[in-house]
Design brief:
By secondary structure, the chain is an alpha/beta fold. It has a domain of about 240 residues: 3-Layer(aba) Sandwich (Aspartate Aminotransferase, domain 2), CATH 3.40.640. About 30% of the residues lie in helices and about 10% in strands. The strands form three sheets. Strands 1-9-8-5-4-2-3 form a seven-stranded mixed sheet. Strand 6 and strand 7 form a beta hairpin. Helix 4 crosses helix 6. The chain starts with a helix and ends in a 7-residue tail after the last helix. The structure holds pyridoxal-5'-phosphate. The site of pyridoxal-5'-phosphate (PLP) has 15 residues, from helix 4.
């Protein structure tokens, strides 16, 4: 290849910077014979629906993050529903949640007769904007849901201060942030309760599974009564004998109080125990790789790393769903979409604009009548009408203009990472050729 062709943008017929993708650089989860053996043992014993292995996994996960109770779930959505009911959210209530997140962060509150008051995001962290919370709080507000977006820890000091001032709960959605630290403390231990996903695509990936984490005996007992009927009133990690647990919900033993069944499949919990053993070292390598990638792009105009400052004690954990921050004004106003098309032409498939679409204007929150009451569920249980249309949350609505995807490296392969970084650098430095 001649110099001319390699320096020309691939979008205009030049040679792509990244030519042969190495799939093992991105393969996740990393599955070894040890995982396979653990799952096979469950299958051969026919123990898929038992809870003995799940309880061991819960205890190990709880010990790893440093929380009193961990409760295994069939998926992350169910763990968050358990957290909502566990916090006492019910008819007429309101929770505050960022608009840019996966729907499971909040949508289940509709099924409890509550509604969601959506807050804007901070364009630098892509997490809930702590300055857009307090004016939304009233007597109807029961909780703030925070999502450590793409692994980036939310500003928990400010958020928990606000929550404490108003006597409301903080629910962490840790689905993106397994292993993330906020000022040295693990995400999932920073609020009243946390729910998280462990589905196959996530940073901690064991199939369809989730986990609830809390230090509160009350929330734990409520979550059990809601979705784990056979464990209601039973022994916990802290009360080993049947008779030792006599909370106010113990009398409901035998039936789930909400009619839900949230148990984790033990093929998942068996794999989870193996994954957890290697998780710290595997995410340490991801962090080295992702930090290497972003260090290479330091100072390139128009693009910024989505990561906390290096000396903050905060980390990106497993760096799930990695984003970059886009600043069109530094690239002559080049639209993020055009930038991403050009980076993809250079061979980087992960580069697409945006992240999750904003939720606040979705018809489910505006119109859906789940309970056939002749009115939208979001206002049918005496909730305040907090429905917000387009134009109300400007940063959330700009998400496809201010963020883009970057490769999620699982291995710290310096030469390969340099190529990927070069693709972004090349397009940013030659952006004027893309301006029409
Ligand atoms: C994936 C995800 C969930 C839901 O978890 P499931 O296991 O898919 O039910 C919830 N919140 C966020 C932020 C997620 O990314």
């Amino acid at each position: 290849m001649n110099d001319r062709n390699s320096s020309r943008l691939a979008a205009f017929g030049g040679t792509p910077v990244v030519s042969n993708q190495n799939p093992s650089l991105f393969k996740w989860p990393i599955v070894t014979e040890e995982d396979e053996q653990a799952v096979l043992e469950v299958l051969r014993a026919g123990a898929m629906s038992n809870t003995d292995i799940t309880k061991k996994f819960e205890a190990e996960y709880a010990a790893w993050v440093g929380v009193r109770h961990a409760l295994g779930y069939c998926n992350g959505t169910a763990s968050l529903l358990g957290a909502f009911w566990g916090c006492g959210i019910g008819a007429g209530d309101e929770v505050i949640c960022p608009s840019v997140t996966y729907w499971a962060s909040c949508t289940a509150v509709l099924g409890l007769g509550a509604t969601v008051n959506f807050a804007d995001i901070d364009p630098d962290t892509l997490c809930i904007d702590p300055g857009d919370i307090e004016h939304r709080i009233g007597p109807w507000t029961k909780a703030i849901v925070v999502v450590h977006y793409g692994g980036y820890p939310c500003d928990m000091d400010r958020i928990t201060t606000i929550a404490r001032r108003h006597g409301i709960k903080v629910i962490e959605d840790v689905s993106h942030a397994h292993g993330s630290l906020y000022r040295g403390r693990p995400c999932g231990t920073l609020g009243d309760v946390a729910g998280l996903s462990m589905m196959a695509g996530k940073g901690f990936a064991i199939g369809e599974a989730g986990m609830l984490l809390t230090d509160s005996d009350e929330i734990y007992e409520r979550a059990i009564a809601y979705g784990h009927y056979e464990r209601t009133g039973g022994p916990s990690r802290f009360a080993k004998s049947e008779s030792a647990v006599k909370g106010p919900l113990a009398r409901f033993r035998g039936l789930p109080i909400g009619g839900h069944k949230h148990r984790m499949n033990q093929t998942c919990s068996a794999m989870g125990r193996v994954q957890l053993k290697y998780f710290p070292e595997r995410i340490a390598e991801i962090q080295r790789a992702m930090n290497r990638f972003w260090d290479l792009l330091e100072g390139v105009p128009g693009i910024r790393a989505h990561r906390p400052p290096k000396d903050s004690g905060s980390t990106m954990g497993c760096w799930y769903f990695p984003r970059g921050l886009y600043r069109a004004e530094e690239l002559g106003g080049l639209p993020c979409e055009v930038f991403c098309d050009a980076v993809r032409a250079e061979g980087v498939e992960a580069c697409s604009p945006g992240s999750n679409s904003p939720l606040h204007a979705h018809p489910v929150f505006h119109e859906a009548d789940i309970f056939h009451q002749g009115q939208p569920t979001s206002v049918a249980f005496g909730q305040r009408d907090v429905r917000q249309g387009s134009g109300s949350l400007p940063n959330a609505e700009r998400i496809t203009e201010i963020s883009f995807g970057v490769p999620w490296f699982k291995h710290d392969d310096a030469a390969a990472i340099e190529r990927y970084a070069e693709a972004y650098r090349k397009v940013a430095l030659q952006h004027d050729e893309l301006l029409t």
